[in-house]
Amino acid sequence: MKILIMLLFLGMVTLVSAQNEYEPSETNPYGIKNPKAPAQLDDFKPMIGECDCESQRRNPDGTWAKAIKMTWKYSYIMNGMAIQDQTLKADGKHSGSIRQFHKDSLKWYVHYYASASPTPTLGSWEGKKTEDGKIILYKPQKAPNGTDGFSRLTFYDITDKGYKWIGEWVDPKETINFPFWKISCVKREE
Question: Which of 87, 83, 58, 55 is nearest to 69 (CA)?
Fold first, then answer.
């Protein structure tokens, strides 16, 4: 009986550790990609870890506000099957996203949340990595004058040393674009 109980206990310990073996830990503070995860999780691999960034938003008068210092941290979550990011900004406004790749649609689905604007429904963007190495995500969004269009988020100049990001409003044909937010990041030395 004692042996059976011990075997059941060891089996439960093995099951629990297998459920979270790719989660952030002391050894791997940003987690590890699960070998069963979609290969596209590697799209964000250069960003895993922490970056020191400068974030700039557009003022209501159309000028760019002064840049704000920001830390942007990326980690594997859901036992290495998805990616979560978190921003910590010097102005006290923080945000984050959960990034999941859907194998059937071959698209990223990104769900965004922010401390300054809690909401019962998270905004979400969808998109993919392009042949030229950019990650481009879209969400339907009308312009202030009611014109149909999209919020387009683009990661570009992605390397192991950092990356850039820009948020823009674009019309459906993407002939008109209005940048409203830009971020430049440098990877923090580990």
Answer: 55
Q: Which CATH architecture has domain 2-187?
A: Beta Barrel (2.40)
d(CA 75, CA 79): 11
What is residue 68's predicted lDDT score, i.e. its pLDDT? 96
DSSP 1-52: -HHHHHHHHHHHHHHHHHHHTTS--SSSTT----TTS-GGGGGGGGGSEEEE
Q: pLDDT tens digits, residue range 23-34?
A: 999 999 999 999
User: Picking from 5-9, 54-58, 89-93, which range would have the lowest pLDDT averaged per residue?
Assistant: 5-9
**Residue 69 identity:** K
Full-prediction pTM beyond 0.70? yes
